[in-house]
Structure to design on (742 residues):
């Protein structure tokens, strides 16, 4: 009997572990071969910054003990992390860092948080910001608050609990050879030029923009990033809670959706948008059969590894209107957080700072560095910045707007699909406004 | 154990052996089922430690929200194709039950799709149904049906569910057929001999002898097909993500989205309970219809 129970308990535990694994995180494995991390360059670039920020005269002295960092980059274990551990130890001779890599970071980290047993440094999972102080130590004393992007993204009551590992942005990823073949000599700066470029690609027999319409998720920029860029207001999504009809043909949402609808009507998307294939599209962009993606810079390393060279892939901000000026949204990746009960709190904090300033991880991962005065090393990001877009830092989704979206069961990518395919897009707008208002009313009770 | 009687010892042994499977059954079947029903009366969001009891509100929502309950319309093609699938399976079973050269090879061929992994099958059919490069459209073009060769099998709102249902037909046809085949072989040969002596033709033997003897098995296969049709999930999930514009969403698809995308585990549990009840209702109706038909014949 007892044995049976033990066995049952063992199986229960095993099955829990098994269910907790599986699936993989979106941000995994975007390692870019092009962004060969040159530690010496980034180290020297930030040496001044760290010197200025050091509070005590000899900071290395209090930094001691062994800490553990929980990461989602399983691909870096036994490779880059060995080097990271060595270099961290060189800077702080009394301290050591160990790396523990897991898959399905978000779910697993939540389980660990609720059990109370979690490592010193970890990537903050998707928990409400109001819960941050329960688990994490404030990082304000690192003196980075004014120097980083997203200083209020993982913050609660004015204190900073998490610093993003890097930033990503969204724009047009394009095949340079396809552009040259189609006779596009300069990068489109206005929406009309953008349509004209698409027309040239189409004339050349190249699919201008790979929307990956059928797979739904690749449509996300049209429903979120583009409208926010158009409005120039990072709180656009959150401010929906003040309205019973947040969507309209002539507001930023409608404008963003209309661009992709126009592309569809003019035949600038795949020949049959309901029959697209994400994996194949990367190869087609790489080979020049498709011209462009509207996606985040995370896709660039994937396109490169699908069969082209890095210098054939370019990146520019989507010109969503004819003003010639563009806003682009910077979105954060996972944020580093420090266990508030860590035995080596100072070491853990020093490690976070070291990861941001000295490790070269952002270049390795193809991120825009989260430190504002640090330059991105990736050629495509340099190109992107050269068009001089105004950056908008993403705001965290408010709990109120998330609650309404969940109650109304709005899938923003599905809305893009319906809007594009509908005979009368106004009806789609009306339907979503109705859903929104009903959910808002139901929650207000 | 020396002091115990044989009876007691037997009971103890029985209990010991039973306890393991019973504990597993209770832990992994009964406990989750009871928990599911309980959750369907709460507003649990997947994290909250103490969900609130909200009575029948979730069930009211399931039945009044057209977005949730209306998707059953998308599943009608699966049921229609499922009925056709059973008819075809019987035909194949009868054919492969006769003395046919290489019939074992054909049986294996028919059964093979069922062994394949459901997601792999769905993935494979992505390449079949692809509009521009799909093998189906290339075949149609090659045999001269150029008009059909540009069909968007998964992109046409009125076609998509039939396209998907045809995949599940391809997959489960062999499985149904094998069950029918087993039943056919259990029909005593002397009944056929007697029918032949009475001068029954082929068709008469099929209609008056084979089919009535298969009633129970048809019932079983229809049970499997209809409950399968009510719980379709993998095909639209892999192939269409519910698109285009929600035309291929199924009830189970909605349930999973409700739970894992919109964090409304309470409502999702209520949807699961409703699905269970619907399966029970549909199957009792079906038993009533087929059972009565069997008696009349």
């Amino acid at each position: 009997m007892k044995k049976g129970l033990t066995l049952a308990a063992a199986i229960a535990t095993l099955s829990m572990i098994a269910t907790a694994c599986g699936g993989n995180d979106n941000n995994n494995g975007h390692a870019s071969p092009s962004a060969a991390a040159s530690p010496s360059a980034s180290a020297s670039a930030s040496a001044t910054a760290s010197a200025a920020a050091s509070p005590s005269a000899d900071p290395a002295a209090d930094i001691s003990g062994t800490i553990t960092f929980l990461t989602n980059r399983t691909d870096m274990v036994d490779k880059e992390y060995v080097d990271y551990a060595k270099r961290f130890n060189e800077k702080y001779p009394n301290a050591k860092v160990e790396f523990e890599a897991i898959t399905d970071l978000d779910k697993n980290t939540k389980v660990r948080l609720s059990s109370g047993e979690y490592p010193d440094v970890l990537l903050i999972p998707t928990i409400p910001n109001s819960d941050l102080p329960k688990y994490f130590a404030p990082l304000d004393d690192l003196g980075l608050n004014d120097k980083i992007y997203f200083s209020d993204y993982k913050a609660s009551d004015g204190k900073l609990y998490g610093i993003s590992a890097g930033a990503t942005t969204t724009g047009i990823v394009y095949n340079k050879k396809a552009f040259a073949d189609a006779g596009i000599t300069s990068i489109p700066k206005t929406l009309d030029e953008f349509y004209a470029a698409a027309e040239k690609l189409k004339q050349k027999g190249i699919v201008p923009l790979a929307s990956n319409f059928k797979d739904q998720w690749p449509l996300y920029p049209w429903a979120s990033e583009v409208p926010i860029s158009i409005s120039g207001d990072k709180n656009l999504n959150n401010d929906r809670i003040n309205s019973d009809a947040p969507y309209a043909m002539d507001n930023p949402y409608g404008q963003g959706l209309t661009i992709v609808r126009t592309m569809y009507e003019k035949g600038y998307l795949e020949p049959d948008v309901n029959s697209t294939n994400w994996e194949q599209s990367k190869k087609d962009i790489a080979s020049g059969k498709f011209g462009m993606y509207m996606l985040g810079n995370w896709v660039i390393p994937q396109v490169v590894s699908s069969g082209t060279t890095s210098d054939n892939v370019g990146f520019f901000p989507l010109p969503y209107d004819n003003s010639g000026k563009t806003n682009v949204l910077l979105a954060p990746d996972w944020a580093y957080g420090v266990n508030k009960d860590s035995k080596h709190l100072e070491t853990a904090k020093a490690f976070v700072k070291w990861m941001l300033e000295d490790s070269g991880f952002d270049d390795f991962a193809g991120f825009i560095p989260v430190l504002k005065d640090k330059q991105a090393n990736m050629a495509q990001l340099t190109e992107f910045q050269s068009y001089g877009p105004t950056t908008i830092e993403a705001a965290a989704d408010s709990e109120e707007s998330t609650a309404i979206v969940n109650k109304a069961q709005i899938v923003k990518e599905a809305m893009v699909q319906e809007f594009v395919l509908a005979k009368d897009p106004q009806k789609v707008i009306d339907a979503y406004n109705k859903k929104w208002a009903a959910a808002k009313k139901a929650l207000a009770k | 154990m020396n002091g115990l009687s044989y009876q007691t010892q037997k009971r103890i042994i029985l209990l010991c052996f039973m306890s393991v499977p019973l504990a597993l059954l209770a832990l992994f079947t009964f406990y989750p089922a009871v928990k599911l029903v309980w959750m369907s009366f709460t507003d649990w969001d997947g994290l909250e430690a103490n969900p609130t009891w909200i009575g029948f509100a979730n069930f009211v929502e399931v039945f009044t929200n057209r977005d949730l309950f209306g998707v059953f319309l998308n599943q009608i093609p699966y049921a229609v194709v499922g009925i056709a699938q059973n008819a075809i399976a019987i035909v194949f079973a009868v054919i492969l039950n006769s003395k046919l050269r290489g019939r074992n090879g054909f049986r294996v061929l028919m059964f093979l799709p069922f062994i394949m992994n459901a997601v792999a099958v769905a993935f494979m059919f992505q390449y079949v149904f692809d509009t521009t490069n799909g093998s189906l459209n290339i075949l149609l073009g090659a045999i001269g049906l150029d008009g059909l060769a540009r069909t968007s099998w998964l992109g046409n709102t009125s076609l998509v569910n039939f396209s998907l249902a045809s995949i599940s037909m391809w997959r489960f046809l062999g499985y149904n057929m094998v069950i029918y085949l087993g039943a056919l072989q259990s029909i005593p040969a002397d009944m056929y001999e007697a029918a032949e002596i009475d001068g029954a033709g082929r068709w008469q033997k099929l209609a008056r002898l084979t089919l009535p003897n298969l009633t129970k098995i048809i019932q079983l296969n229809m049970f499997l097909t209809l409950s399968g049709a009510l719980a379709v999930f993998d095909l639209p999930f892999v192939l269409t993500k519910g698109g285009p514009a929600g035309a291929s969403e199924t009830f189970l698809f909605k349930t999973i989205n409700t739970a894992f995308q919109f964090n409304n585990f309470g409502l999702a549990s209520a949807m699961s309970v409703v699905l269970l009840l619907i399966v029970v209702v549909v199957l009792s109706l079906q038993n009533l219809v087929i059972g009565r038909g069997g008696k009349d014949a």
Q: What stands out?
A: The CA atoms of residues 25 and 141 of chain B lie 54 Å apart. The longest helix of chain B spans residues 6-39.
